[in-house]
């Protein structure tokens, strides 16, 4: 896999600069762009920006839980490497199930970033030293994450708006699509999530949030 360009999605400019220099110096990444919000990153991807790798911080201003990872993994169609200050094994496992091709703690040395990119470049999945998957880890949260990962990018966006309490008519206006199209997507979302109502779909989405994941860790 040829990885020569990357899009870093992180709201800390100094860390973005440091990470960009690290990727260029040790991982043969020639071109690096940055975005401070998930919405900015998605807009770039939708406009045709084509990085070979997305490097994503999970804790962004416009993201709740793992929704950002799920949405950008769908939109990018390239590997997504999570770089986060949170390193609990259950969160790492949840991120991998949500579509991450690798997970690197923010405090890692440069050699770790080189190893992570090399692993992803070779088609593998990178996990940090010491990561231990748990049997049946996450319980209901793991199941919710796996079901949410089956949604398309558009379905994930519509579910986000449903979670915000918006009606089909409002969603259609926001996304500039027909209301009948929204209804079709909502039906498909409920089918994929295995639920019978919008309320149940919202509950599934909430189960995959950081709050739920972190609560399961206690």
TrEMBL record:
One record GO biological process: phosphorelay signal transduction system
Keyword Kinase attributed: no
Domain called Response regulatory: residue spans: 5-121
Alphabetical UniProt keywords: DNA-binding, Phosphoprotein
Start and end residues of each HTH luxR-type domain: 144-209
SUPFAM superfamilies, alphabetized: C-terminal effector domain of the bipartite response regulators, CheY-like
InterPro entries: CheY-like_superfamily, EvgA-like, NreC/VraR/RcsB-like_REC, Sig_transdc_resp-reg_C-effctor, Sig_transdc_resp-reg_receiver, Tscrpt_reg_LuxR_C
Residues modified to 4-aspartylphosphate: 57
A molecular function (GO) term: DNA binding
Superkingdom, taxonomy of origin: Bacteria
Annotated SMART domains: HTH_LUXR, REC
Protein name: Response regulator
